[in-house]
Specification:
415 residues; alpha+beta
């Protein structure tokens, strides 16, 4: 166990972090619902991203921890008739969260409404509504003040639908139009109906009921979430403490910024609120102050932290909770990592969709991967070993073969 009050070595902190994230417990056969629940309980949230060059990112952290499982099982847990997960941005960016967390984030939905109508109001609460919604709603309030109500009424009457179905026939504004929408950019080219339905989503009036070709399908919140969850009392101060406890259990050891900062936490909080909540959790014994080797800021151990040997083997999604905070990844693993999907091809160093390879308790290589579905091949354009890494050929090949099997690909093509 870690000795509190003394310097915690980087190796010890790394083992604590890996144990907290569910690594080192072994992969037991084909993943079932119980194992998926265990993973979600460990990682806290599954970040959702649209890039599909290999596999949608929210599937990968589960595979990294349990091995082969049916992705349809996770789909049912998130978007089935009685979901165990729900989709939202009230956690770390767009993520899948346990349904049990819904009462803990309802105050963030109100804060989102404050950000839209009150400028920076919700920013004080640590909520960041997409800028396209903030600016777009300001315009819609002037040009089409009844649109939000019309969209909500249509979903209520006609049932779940995509934003494209809600706004069928609408023309998207573009840069260069005589009256351009300042919310329109290269990524956020949204129709008015899309802005309206995303506002309803941000404020919790509608939820994501499913995905169709990965496009969100929206429905009334009361038709998506279980009734007991909807009836649960809304929390505020206690909710903030519980959200930071969840983050601490998932990370094992972290600074306050890594626990609940605006850019790094599972559930970001503003600086003043974060400081208060962290102090309260220290007083209650949920967080234990510690000094981690190489980290200048105060760190905190979760009261559930374990420092035991870890023998892991996994390819990590760029959006895995273990490594999504890049500064923390560098401190713990001496591994400078940046995602390259938005980097011009000529400036990429290690490839396009690069996954760190975890072996034992170290990140030993960077593996560029692509699923070529036409030829049923898992392509490995490049493999870049870390300086001083041990030989990892056999375990990496085994992991690649396991991944190919899981993705339904017939072969692996190595560089």
């Amino acid at each position: 166990m870690v000795v509190v009050g003394e310097l915690v070595s980087r190796e010890s902190a790394r083992r604590v972090a890996l144990r907290a994230q569910g690594f080192g417990v072994g992969r037991a056969g084909r993943g079932d619902v119980r194992q998926l629940r265990r993973v979600v309980g460990r990682v806290g949230v599954l970040q959702v991203d649209s890039v599909n060059v290999l596999c949608r990112s929210h599937y990968l952290p589960v595979f990294s921890r349990v091995g082969e499982y049916r992705r349809e099982t996770l789909d049912r847990m998130a978007w089935g008739g009685e979901p165990e997960l729900f989709e939202g941005f009230w956690g770390h960016k767009a993520s899948l969260l346990p349904v049990s967390s819904y009462p803990l984030v309802r105050w963030r939905m109100r804060a989102a409404e404050g950000q839209v109508w009150g400028g920076g109001g919700a920013l004080k609460e640590g909520v960041a509504v997409p800028w396209a919604v903030v600016v777009g709603m300001e315009r819609l309030q002037k040009e089409r003040p009844g649109l939000v109500g019309e969209v909500l009424a249509r979903i209520a009457d006609e049932g779940a639908m995509t934003a494209g179905e809600v706004g069928a026939g609408e023309v998207r504004r573009k840069r260069g139009d005589p009256d351009p929408d300042p919310s329109t950019g290269s990524m956020w080219n949204w129709q008015d109906a899309k802005i309206a339905v995303e506002y309803l989503f941000a404020t919790g009036q509608v939820m994501v009921a499913g995905r169709r070709n990965f496009e969100r399908v929206y429905d009334l919140t009361e038709r998506v979430l279980p009734e007991p969850v909807l009836r649960a009392p809304e929390l505020s101060a206690e909710a903030q403490r519980e959200l930071v406890r969840i983050s601490a259990r998932s990370l094992g050891v972290a600074t306050a910024r890594e626990l609940c900062g605006k850019t790094g936490g599972h559930y970001p909080l503003p600086a003043a609120t974060a400081k208060r909540v962290v102090n309260e959790l220290v007083e209650s014994g949920d967080l234990i102050p510690a000094n981690v080797e190489g980290v200048t800021k105060q760190s905190y151990l979760s009261s559930t932290a374990e420092d035991r040997p870890v023998d892991a083997r996994a390819l990590l999604s760029p959006f895995d909770t273990l490594i999504w905070n890049r500064d923390r990844t560098e401190h713990l693993f001496d591994f400078f990592y940046r995602i390259s999907i938005y980097t011009p091809a000529a400036q990429r160093i290690h490839g396009y969709y690069v996954l760190p390879f975890l072996l034992g308790d170290r990140l030993v290589a960077r593996v560029d991967l692509k699923a070529d579905r036409k030829t049923s091949t898992l392509l490995v354009p490049t493999i870049t070993p870390e300086p001083g890494a041990p030989d990892f050929t056999e375990p990496l090949v085994a992991e690649l073969q396991l991944m190919a099997s899981w993705l339904g690909l017939e072969r692996v093509r190595l560089p």
